Amino acid sequence: MSDAPRPVYLNGEWCDTATARVSAFDRGYLFGDGVYEVIPAFGGRLFGLAEHMARLSRSLAAIGITEPLAASQWQGVFDRLLDGHDGQDVAIYLQVTRGASERRDHAWPVPAVEPGVMATVSPIGGPGRDARVITAPDQRWARCDIKSINLLPNTMARQQAFEQGCDEAVLVRDGLVTEGAATNLFAVLDGRLVTAPTGPQILPGITRGLLLDVVRHQTLVEVEESFVSLGALSRADEVFLTSSTKDLWPVVEIDGRSVGRGEHAGKAGPITRRLDRAFQAFKQSQRSSA
Ligand code: PDD
């Protein structure tokens, strides 16, 4: 599927990955003036759709773009993108930009132009290897809660990780871990599950939120939403990342040192594995009840 052209919804029309074209004056292209979502679908069923669409609405409202499509119109787009993918795990990528305006001006066009809307679908790769990560300075802006298409600091951090043979960069601001370049981070410290609180310093990950609901509902482990210091991260018994395309992703090495101690050193830890089982069961239950 990766080589064959994939369907693309673009500004009200259907085309494919080989033919999709946007205006050189689209403000997403000129300024990174837009927001996006990545919504997974497992076995043809969208997972966490309501949460993803609520986050999209919050992102759009935060940057003053009016909702371009009604919920039923989005659903029509998703249905067409998912057509024929019943047996596969795929991710829908959608983005909304402020639209195209031939006058390049930082201030928004008056009157407002039609938002640029794009959505497509791609396969989600298998689980892959456990994560080896680096730590890197968090060089992002002060509104990381908006799922902005401005991802330059994220792409630079992830690239730095790749160049060191690693899979992800864990971002650190003022000695405190915020999140990964494209993931949220959880650490197990003294038997508690700790993750950064929502707020302007992190993206409120949908996987993060759903996992916390499962953990609290089933009282699997005590949860604390507070920032993990770099020192605490290096002493953590277990560390894992979450995202819509990776679910729970065990971290086995940080800056070249194994995570965990004794028999668990450098391996996915017992709490991570237990939470992963609970999360997979939750996913399965959503699938059968959808
Ligand atoms: N990234 N933090 C950041 C900075 C992210 O970019 C992402 C997701 C997450 C996890 O959020 P969620 O659980 O809602 O996927 C956390 C997506 C997958 C991406 O940019 O491709």
SSE blueprint:
Elements: E1 7-10, E2 13-16, H1 27-31, E3 34-42, E4 45-46, H2 49-62, H3 71-82, E5 90-97, E6 116-123, E7 131-137, H4 152-163, E8 168-173, E9 176-180, E10 184-189, E11 192-195, H5 206-217, E12 223-225, E13 228-229, H6 230-235, E14 238-243, E15 247-254, E16 257-258, H7 270-289
Helix pairs in contact: 5-7
Bound molecules: N-(5'-phosphopyridoxyl)-D-alanine.
Structure write-up:
The protein has 290 residues and is α+β, with helices and mostly antiparallel strands. The protein has 2 domains: 7-123, D-amino Acid Aminotransferase, Chain A, domain 1 (2-Layer Sandwich); 131-289, Alpha-Beta Barrel (D-amino Acid Aminotransferase, Chain A, domain 2). It is built from 7 helices and 16 strands. Strands 7, 8, 9, 10, 11, 12, 13, 14, 15 and 16 form a 10-stranded mixed β-sheet that branches. Strands 2-1-6-5-3-4 form a 6-stranded antiparallel β-sheet. A hairpin with a 2-residue loop joins β15 and β16 (257-258). α5 crosses α7. It is globular. The mean pLDDT is 96. The site of N-(5'-phosphopyridoxyl)-D-alanine has 15 residues, from α5 and β14.
Shape: globular
Average residue pLDDT: 96
The second-level CATH architecture of the largest domain is Alpha-Beta Barrel
Q: Which stretches are low in confidence, meaning pLDDT under 50 for 5 or more residues running?
A: none
Highest-level CATH class of the largest domain: Alpha Beta
**Helix content class:** 25-40%
Instruction: Give the end-to-end Cα distance, rounded to a whole number of Å.
Output: 26 Å
* Structure annotation, total helices: 7
What's the total number of strands?
A: 16
Biggest sheet record:
10 strands, mixed
Structural class: alpha+beta
According to CATH, the fold-level topology of the largest domain is: D-amino Acid Aminotransferase, Chain A, domain 2
Q: How many structural units, i.e. domains? A: 2
Roughly what fraction of the amino acids lie in strands? 25-35%
Element pattern in H and E: EEHEEHHEEEHEEEEHEEHEEEH
Hetero groups = N-(5'-phosphopyridoxyl)-D-alanine
CATH superfamily of the largest domain: D-amino Acid Aminotransferase, subunit A, domain 2
Radius of gyration: 20 Å
